[in-house]
Design brief:
The protein is mainly alpha-helical and about 110 residues long. It has helices at about 5-10, 15-25, 30, 35-55, 60-85, 90-100, 105-109. It folds into two domains: about 1-55, no CATH class; about 60-109, no CATH class. The chain is about 70% helix and about 0% strand.
Length: about 110
């Protein structure tokens, strides 16, 4: 397994970089505030930036992983709305993600 996608998403320039910046913020609330929406945006940005910069050019499988991460994020929107509207049960949502991303059933759930 190629560790690069997770390193980029979770490390530098991803989540860890964002945390490092927040720890230095002058406002003490901002030093400890966690917003997963913004955090995931930074992680997604980091993946896309590295993809566009050519970091994964020599590894088709790694690019596939990045594209699957993107697909999962897009499908989250659809699944979240359908869950909220009662159009999906949790089991249906997990099965949908398992088939469309693709991903294993435990992760999908």
């Amino acid at each position: 397994m190629d560790p690069q996608p997770i390193i980029v998403h979770e490390g530098i320039p991803g989540h860890y970089f964002q945390l490092c910046l927040s720890w230095k913020h002058e406002d003490p609330i901002r030093r400890h505030y966690y917003d997963s929406g913004a955090n995931e945006g930074i992680g997604f940005y980091a993946e896309e930036m590295m993809l566009q910069a050519g970091l994964f050019d020599d590894s088709p499988h790694t690019r596939e992983i990045i594209y699957n991460f993107m697909r999962l994020r897009a499908l989250h929107v659809e699944v979240d709305v359908k869950l909220a509207l009662g159009q999906f049960t949790l089991e249906q949502a997990a099965k949908y993600l398992e088939e469309k991303v693709p991903m294993d059933s435990q992760t999908a759930r």
